[in-house]
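Exam revision sheet. Question 4 asks you to relate a sequence to its structure. Input first:
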Amino acid sequence: MSIRGKALALLMAVNALSGYELTVESSSRQVYQGEPLQLVYRFAHTASDKGVDFRFAAPELAHFQLLQSHAEERNENGKELWEKTYVVAPLQGGELSSGTAAMNVAERTYTQDAWGQWMPSVTWQQHLFEPVTLFANPVPGGVQAVGDFALKAVIDRNTTESGEPVRLTLSLSGCGNLATAQPLRMAVAGVSVFDEGHTANAAWKDGCYYNEVNRTFALVGARDFTIPSVRFRSFDPATQRVVTAASLPMPVHVRAAVHSQQREIPKEETMTIWSLAAGSAAGFVLGVALTLLAVRRRSREERVRVDSLRTALVALFKHLDDPEAKKSAEAVEKYLYEAAEAPDSSKIATLLGRLKRGERKAR
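Answer key, structure tokens:
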């Protein structure tokens, strides 16, 4: 018998004599680098045992990535069972050991003093778990994770208004390890893409470490665009092959901005000077006529300014990648559709001139 075998035999003999049961289980002894596995440490004792306190000394788990851990206690077959579960993944290939774990037990003992009195005391005893040894196989280069995953892309609409966002959710799910994978990304030429956050859930169930990651993006474009396919490469330990999960391209139709309806001119603004003159003095008629002309002039100027800003908005939509153009487009939209303060038309005209000159130089 090897030295290691003799040491393990001695360890088990000591545990048996103590009356405590210490076991450790591994879901697999042959895995791939990055592949999740489960280690379960169990410590059982009866309520009548002399132990009064128990403290677990965790294994070193060197060269392992710790994904999850939890502990629980329960009564099973008349015994008090303490259980610690680790979900880990090898960080490198070759033969690996979990390291030494132990349960430190405080036992109550009694000693007799010089006067014959029995005095209680507590002594700590250490009981060792058998180390877990396994072999991790290497994986091919260029993969993003180890496991079998499905990739799905969903949008909340495939038709939208110009300047309105389309929300895209990318979902990656399956058995394996996504803890070290790079976040899913999205880029579309000519479209503003905003990352709105992500959610991630993982749990060991039905013999595998199940992961689900969802990432949401808001995409804002001024013209039709297509959301490209997203690809994710992983190594599947079950088939021992590199597999690629991919989403389908999705076209998005962008309608032109809907113009607000022209303001209805009040009826009194359309009254003629002659209809007023029928029952009024010439001076009063002249004053009213001048007032109406001023009102009409202001209304006409307002319509001209609204139309010019609408035209400018369409032009600004072509340059949403420019921060100043994007800010100006938002200001114009708020004025046209939310009754906000009118933006400075001269500044917008200057900005559009600069952008057009940039386009001509680019050509």
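Marking note for examiners. Confidence is low (pLDDT under 50) at residues 259-265, 269-274.
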